[in-house]
Amino acid sequence: MDRYIISELLPTFLFGVGAFTSIGVSVDSLFYLVNQVVEKGLPVAKAIEVLLLKFPEFIVYGLPMATLLSTLMTFGRLSSDSELVALRGCGISTQRLMMPALIFCLLITGLMFAFNESIVPAANLRASTTLRAALNQEQVEYRESNILYQEFQQVQQPDGSRESALARIFYSKEFDGKRMRGLTILDFSREGLNQIVSAESAQWNPQQSAWDFENGTIYVVSPDGSFRNIVRFTEQQLALPRSPLDLAQRSKDYGEMNIAESREYLKIIEPAGNIGKIRELRVRIQQKISLPFVCVVFGLVGATLGSQLRRAGRSTGFALSILIIFAYYILYFIFGAIAQAGALPPVLGAWIPNLFGLAAGLLLMIRASR
Question: Fewest CB atoms less than 10 Å from the CB: which of 225, 250, 292, 322?
């Protein structure tokens, strides 16, 4: 019986992966690339390469949809042909009938998680760099402007407690991939002595783990606000943290980072105190974890709902699949936005749509068991 149900699921699942992936790539990338070929002279070979590199991302989106479609249509077909009635007549429970489908969906969840972590970020990054290189924008991914980095440190208070206090503000007008230009640094890290560093340019020195500044001035400021000393320099090495360079180089999009890279990036931006960006990244990390598990949720909903569609055709199953997918992604984006606004913890914002779907699936299973 298990082998029979899996063999029924597999063709529809593969059809669903192909159909949903093709639709997603066409809507998101195909028309855009055609426009780039016509208006900006993007070579057709490069357009095809970028299009192929976009497929892994949309295969990931297509896997949950295909699990829903396959379970809904397979169990709908078994129900309409009275095969489920015959199996129940042999003493097989509804839960046991759905077990092969749920195990199948669990395997797809693992596959989707691995695919989304190991292949999709690299393919997306390659697609964006290929497209920029083809449009003669090779260095764009490394060029940043108006780089602002704030560093905080823990300061001991008179009562013995420790509080976070601003230690440095690092600003650079531009970073060209190697050198920062137009720098201003406000340094409050030493008690009773503040300094302002202004320099034409600076470059990270990996051997010395310090910054090499060129053509600048250091203003040393007393606690009462008066200038204590002014030092002009042509070359000066300062032991400042490397974090601004990491911040400037990390211009990857969220879709171009896996969970480990996203967490590393989170460590870099957390000291800067950009609450909105930090919150958004935390939500995206949780969504990367929660999204693959929607395969199990869709599998449960599809199998239980399909087993109750005794006289419905394939068109009804397909229409129901589209409706459920649409409802899920609305919840996915709404709760993600609420979590980014700070009204929900990132974990809840990412997992509530799955919990809604799981509750709906369990209710349908109880109803189907009666």
Answer: 225
Say which residues have a Cβ less than 8 Å from residue 166's Cβ, sequence separation at least 6. 150, 151, 152, 188
- Backbone φ and ψ of 73, nearest 5°: -75, -35
Q: Which amino acid is at 233?
A: F
Report the sign of the C-alpha dihedral through residues 248, 249, 253, 259, in that order: negative
> What is the token pair recorded at 248?
């400037």
Query: Which residues touch 84 (CB under 8 Å, ≥6 apart)?
Result: 75, 78, 97, 307
pTM equals: 0.68
Measured between alpha carbons, how far is 50 from 55 in angstroms, rounded to an integer? 9
Q: How far apart (Å, rounded) are the C-alpha atoms in residues 179 and 212? A: 10
Sign for the CA dihedral angle at 148, 154, 155, 157 comes to positive
| Structural Rg of the chain based on CA atoms | 28
pLDDT, tens only, 131-180: 877 777 654 445 567 777 777 777 777 777 777 777 778 888 888 777 88
Query: Cβ of 19: how many Cβ atoms within 10 Å?
Result: 15
